């Protein structure tokens, strides 16, 4: 097992009774649609049937001959007459149903949808059920996505490198395109479609305008032709100064007529090649990227220039809200809100403002980004990071769905109680809008796609939550474990526990109690002492603000006023250190080392305990994994085992670095119940130096 097949393994079903039931339902398939998408759905059933049942699929040419029918009511009118399909039209273009029904005198298995892409999703759902051994006799599934555009963001560069990518190089081989189509593109598309992902931004937000050149459009077209079969639209990032770099113009001012004309023609050229092109994703005036503010224009003016030109082609414009250039405050946390809140209502209807889950940057834990409760007249989309930039790269087992879930289920109070982020992003602010969600991909060209075998779970979970943001992380983990390793309950129970505790463990050994940004420049190793020049706002010290007397960043009404960016009652809850949830305490407050936690312990003791708890949890994960050998392929088992050993060593290093560094400020002993680190701060620093940065 090399992990290449992801969760689409289609391993032989060993339970004889189950296999017999499946064989009886899969013996003859009636599949009247002949579109390219229907054809790949049919191929998928063929592949699965060979794997699961060692049976070649027989095609039926009518309902009478079929045991399984996969069709729309248009191609198979008998399905439209069924009681079960009455509500089908409400499921939209991507929705589907899977059930058994009596048709022409016999029980038959049915996958039905309004469109062929819905059939594809229905087929994948059916195959998931088969892989997990579900009984078919009484199956009834009716499902549709709650978010229309479910998008992966690749931070892939045209030279094949991947920004914050840890799983090898880009899967997109630009130098070979458009001539050679790597078969891997097809497996990438299958994997995405199987979890409902229907869009992909092919290149880095730190954009290279070359992607918009005629030569590259031909390459993008070749990729789009493959991905389209699986219901996936391609998007590109657009560099704001492309009219200058590619078009030779003197300016990229969004109000300049020549600039407008250049974009208009460029967009027309793209749609000529790729009629279903998804649109652009733009990072502007952020971390050195050019943007409208370079010309004295607002983010809305910049976004609308492109959006209005994309609109006649049904294109979307995803404008990122990740900015921290606003000089009005030196607290990065308040900047995006200050920048974008005043623009609420000024964006064209096909603009989606792409907002990261937290106000800083994909940290192990952040309170949710207050923009989600603050822009009722702007269509917001959520951006999460699947690649583990701040969470141990491809080395640490950190199941991210609990982090995504924590954000999606956070109540913004945007329209009173119950206005969760899940609801904010799945609600259209007016009929002409579209809803969307994006995840920064963790996919690369190494054999198993994601490096850490459990990294696959994060890709899977993103897709499942994009489809239904109210799913629970535990249910998704169970589903993934069953598809990937084994659905033996003994295996699932233990492995689930590992996964579900893994994110909290990472928070504990990296940044507990609301601490943040304690890592080195690579974002991998601990460096709470970091003092970067010439950018003090990026140094760790400027985030934790620890000194002799206490620790934490005062973002209350007495400090940077970040708490005021939340709706009532959150702003009041966050504003008072007594009511502020402890997981955000040091995010919003600077408190003395003696500040009493709910446990009665002083903050200093609580902090140390969290660091130790994180390491203990990783040790527990390693023990748990050791029990799972009998259920897992030997190669995968060993790989995870050795990664957990590394994670334990590194978690310990994180703990020791932070506990010892903060001790050098607090001047307090390590609480007696804990065993002090067996090394000094200088030794830890020296060790880190020898390891270099990754
Ligand atoms: C940060 C990454 C940086 C990205 C940036 C972004 O460190 O590489 O370019 O986010 O989202 O997390 O634009």
UniProtKB/TrEMBL annotation:
Residues 6-126 form the Alpha glucuronidase N-terminal domain. This is Xylan alpha-1,2-glucuronidase. GO terms for molecular function: alpha-glucuronidase activity; xylan alpha-1,2-glucuronosidase activity. It is an enzyme of class 3 (hydrolase). It holds the Pfam family Glyco_hydro_67N. It comes from the Bacteria. Its EC number is 3.2.1.131. Homodimer. Residues 131-449 form the Glycosyl hydrolase family 67 catalytic domain. The active site is at residues 287, 361, 389. One of its GO terms (biological process) is xylan catabolic process. GO terms for cellular component: extracellular region. Residues 450-672 form the Glycosyl hydrolase family 67 C-terminal domain. Keywords: Carbohydrate metabolism, Glycosidase, Hydrolase, Polysaccharide degradation, Signal, Xylan degradation. InterPro entries: A-glucoronidase_C_sf, GH, Glyco_hydro_67_aGlcAse, Glyco_hydro_67_aGlcAse_N, Glyco_hydro_67_C, Glyco_hydro_67_cat, Hex-like_dom2. Belongs to the glycosyl hydrolase 67 family. It catalyses: Hydrolysis of (1->2)-alpha-D-(4-O-methyl)glucuronosyl links in the main chain of hardwood xylans. Gene3D superfamilies: Alpha-glucuronidase, C-terminal domain, Chitobiase/beta-hexosaminidase domain 2-like, Glycosidases.
